């Protein structure tokens, strides 16, 4: 049994019986909440990788084709924090207008009253409604710490500064994710007898948001038992 297989078996056993502690635990296990909750790391620097363990050439080779410069960075990236006021005036909506908005009947009120509206006014109103209810994914850089490589990840978030529906009541929620593979510095054992190495771990990132009042339970199966092994 290889080292990674042993870790997986130990993780499954610990999930059901509490065995293999205090060496590792899974976080989250699982969860439909994204972005991923911040990891509580062991504060002892003995569990940190040493300088010789952070050789970029070696780690790039180990990560291989999983290295994605669009979502991960070795050095500190430039952080740009955007608010809803910054985003919506510049928003370029992707693809064609959704059918549920495009086919909206504006010639009659919910109470049966007929309304006359010109083509230009209808087009402008539907464009406004599309922009108002659209839920973009806002990406910000997050520092995962020294025990991840690369240590910086570009994490997706759904804007929730205001309701996305008219009338109000619905909010932007994650509906899809992509998974990126990072390296995690993992230690097993205690102090001088411990064994540490880099292992691959998967990290889910929000890739699509939708205006909804529902909780998308299907995220559980999409994200699974991700991501992180942490020392207790």
From TrEMBL:
Keyword Secreted: yes
Family annotation (Pfam families): Noggin
Any one of the GO BP annotations: dorsal/ventral pattern formation
Gene3D superfamilies recorded: Cystine-knot cytokines, Helix hairpin bin
Highest taxon above the source species: Eukaryota
Region forming the signal peptide: 1-20
GO cellular component terms, semicolon-separated: extracellular space
Keywords attached to this entry: Chondrogenesis, Developmental protein, Differentiation, Disulfide bond, Secreted, Signal
Listed SUPFAM superfamilies: Cystine-knot cytokines (SSF57501)
Major localisation: secreted
Cellular localization per UniProt: Secreted
Disulfide bond positions: 135-172, 158-209, 164-211, 187-196
Family from the record: Belongs to the noggin family.
Subunit and partners: Homodimer.
Record's protein name: Noggin
Organism whose genome encodes this protein: Acipenser ruthenus
């Amino acid at each position: 049994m290889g080292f990674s297989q042993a870790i997986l078996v130990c993780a499954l056993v610990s999930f059901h019986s509490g065995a293999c502690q205090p060496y590792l635990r899974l976080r989250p296990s699982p969860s439909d909440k994204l972005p991923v909750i911040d990891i509580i790391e062991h504060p002892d620097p003995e569990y940190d990788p040493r300088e010789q363990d952070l050789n970029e050439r070696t780690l790039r080779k180990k990560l291989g084709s999983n290295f994605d410069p669009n979502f991960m960075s070795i050095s500190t990236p430039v952080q740009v924090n955007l608010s809803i006021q910054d985003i919506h005036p510049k928003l370029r909506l992707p693809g064609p207008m959704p059918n549920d908005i495009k086919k909206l009947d504006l010639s009659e009120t919910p109470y049966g009253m007929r309304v006359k509206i010109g083509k230009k006014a209808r087009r402008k109103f539907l464009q406004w409604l599309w922009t108002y209810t659209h839920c973009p994914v806002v990406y910000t850089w997050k520092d995962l710490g020294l025990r991840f490589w690369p240590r910086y990840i570009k994490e997706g978030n759904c804007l929730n500064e205001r309701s996305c529906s008219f009338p109000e009541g619905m909010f932007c929620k994650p509906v899809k994710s992509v998974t990126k593979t990072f390296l995690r510095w993992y230690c097993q054992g205690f102090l001088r007898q411990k064994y540490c190495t880099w292992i691959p771990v998967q990290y889910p990132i929000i890739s699509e948001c939708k205006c909804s009042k529902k909780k998308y339970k299907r995220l559980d199966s999409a994200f699974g038992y991700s991501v992180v092994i942490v020392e207790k």
